[in-house]
Amino acid sequence: MQLWFSEKHTKNVKFSIRVERQLYSGKSEFQRIDVFESPEFGRFLTLDGYMMLTEKDEFIYHEMITHVPMAVHPNVKKVLVIGAGDGGVIRELVRYPEIEQIDLVEIDELVVEVSKKYLPKTACRLDDKRVHIYYEDGLRFVRSCEDEYDLIIVDSTDPFGPGEGLFTKEFYGNCYKALHEDGIMINQHESPFYEEDAAACQKAHKQIVQSFPISKIYQAHIPTYPSGHWLFGFASKKYHPLKDLQEARWNLRGLHCDYYTTTLHKGAFYLPSYVEELLKNVE
Q1: 155 an active-site residue?
Q2: What predicted TM-score, i.e. pTM, was given to this entire model?
Q3: pLDDT at 158
Q4: Is the pLDDT confidence value at 98 over 80?
């Protein structure tokens, strides 16, 4: 008998992956956590039945949410990461020697422990001495911060359940306050393709536009996320993601990525017409 993991993308669309075995199943006070092993995508993590990452394609998401701002901001010393308990964002950030401190705020300690045990390729750098982990609500944590960070990366779950508060105007306003005068905030922005997801994109973009003087959207293609077409938000007090791209400087670092390049960086901000229309309606 074949075993399959299925996730409903809409009431009419379902995404399925064949599973060889289930490695872990548990429930924290916040959510159900499962880890499966599949022949096509390797190990993958789900929260409350929703796909968070797979070993085969997680590099796309984590490279694009991390290296885009790092190639723009000229002097990142202190970073706040909200969510990201799987460790993928941390793995990419610690590749930059100039970063002095990374504060990781994850609401669910069990996500971190499960990732360390079952997803070592992703959670391999959480013990870096620059990383400080706080197990608390990101919305509450950022309220008490002011003029503290160069970069904030919001690697949240979807806009319901534990991650719901990370898509509010209050949260984005607090992120603005927590950043230095030239700070950047990056957030995962959902998919623009299906109607319900597109509405979440519009809502988040509207609130970010009201909080930041520069607010741009960029895209990546992630096979296991709904529709495969995924958006990220780039919000900044000062830097434009294309005009201020430090292309030569970033390339001189010699960092090898499997998805991100500075050429792709530029192209990622040129969006399909239907996405431009979607965002224009709320700007």
Answers
A1: yes
A2: 0.95
A3: 63
A4: yes
Q: Which residues, listed in sequence order, are joined to residue 216 by a DSSP beta bridge?
A: 234
Q: pLDDT digits over 233-259, tens only?
A: 999 999 999 999 999 999 999 999 999
Residue 165 reports pLDDT greater than 90: no
Catalytic option among 57, 108, 150, 155: 155
Which amino acid, residue 259? Y
Look-up: residue for tokens 């160069």? 150
Q: How far apart are CA 109 and CA 98, in angstroms?
A: 28
Sign of CA dihedral 132, 137, 138, 140: negative
- What is the crossing angle of helices 195-211 and 169-178, to 10°? 40
Residue with tokens 């399925």: 16
Average pLDDT over residues 200-215: 92
